[in-house]
Design a protein that fits this description.
- The protein has 12 helices and 5 strands.
- A 5-stranded parallel beta sheet has the order 2-1-3-4-5.
- Helix 11 packs antiparallel against helix 12.
- It starts with 6 loop residues before the first strand and ends in a 5-residue tail after the last helix.
Length: 261
């Protein structure tokens, strides 16, 4: 009898399920992985549900309810390694926009009986609640990065994820810069690589779905956007997007909107 295969679990919190679908989109790679791992909890793909402990738990989605806040504690306790995947899990996702408004007022404007909506006033990343061993940014995540992360995790190695900006990927692909040649408000200079410069390769501007790069020059990016005619409010909105709760983007957006005290 061989050694037991690592037990893998996938959990969902507040999200669109897009990052879980990226796992399923692995297709051929997933079949190869299935020979080396044992997926024991993944409700998007199977009704099989087994209790922990788990060797690796992948978590998609942000914390938006009291029950979520308790459930993630249980997941953490049952997991040897916990990896967050996607913008919702790593930064609070697009739903973090409610952190800037009166959540009760929003609920009352949408639902006839808002008292039945058990949502917190904020949407927060998983790392605000439990310790996280690795983060995979992106909306959705890039499946090649996921395969690399799983492979290294199974070997007990630290994942090697890109920290440079999308501009580096653009250069490697020989793209013509959309900022220089077309004056587009591209967020590539401050956005983490990993998407393969998908949007600039199609002639449009990057909108920062992979979150901030390592040590992003957000002030310089704000000045660049302002020089292109963007108002301070519009510049703040570009940082507020999918990953607006990440500290680097939140700080500059707060400053532009006069929320920094």
């Amino acid at each position: 009898m061989g050694a037991p295969r690592p037990r893998i679990a996938v959990f969902k919190f507040a999200s669109c399920d897009g990052c879980q679908l990226q796992i399923l989109n692995l297709e051929h790679e997933l079949l190869a992985l299935a020979e080396r791992i044992d997926i024991v909890h993944f409700l998007e793909a199977t009704s099989r549900v087994e209790d922990g402990p788990y060797d690796i738990s992948f978590v998609e989605g942000s914390i938006t309810t009291e029950s979520d806040a308790q459930r993630i504690q249980d997941v953490r306790e049952a997991s040897r390694q916990l990896v967050t995947i996607g913008a919702c899990a790593t930064s609070g996702g697009i739903q973090h926009l409610r952190n800037l408004a009166d959540a009760e007022e929003w609920k009352a404007s949408v639902y006839p009986h808002p008292e039945h909506v058990a949502a917190l006033a904020t949407s927060t990343p998983i790392s605000d609640h439990v310790s996280v061993d690795a983060e995979l940014q992106g909306c959705p995540i890039e499946k090649g990065q996921l395969v690399q992360l799983i492979a290294r995790a199974l070997l007990g190695a630290v994942p090697e994820l890109p920290g440079a900006s999308v501009c580096m990927e653009c250069k490697r692909q020989g793209n013509v810069c959309v900022v220089v040649t077309r004056g587009l408000p591209c967020m590539g200079p401050v956005t983490r690589a990993g998407c393969g410069a998908l949007c600039p390769s199609l002639g449009r501007d990057c909108y920062a779905c992979f979150g901030p790069s390592e040590q992003p020059n957000t002030s310089g990016q704000a000045r660049l956007l302002a020089s292109q005619g963007e108002s301070p409010r519009r510049v703040a909105q570009r940082f507020r997007g999918i990953n607006g709760q990440r500290r680097e983007f939140r700080r500059i957006a707060d400053r532009l909107e006069g929320r920094d005290g």
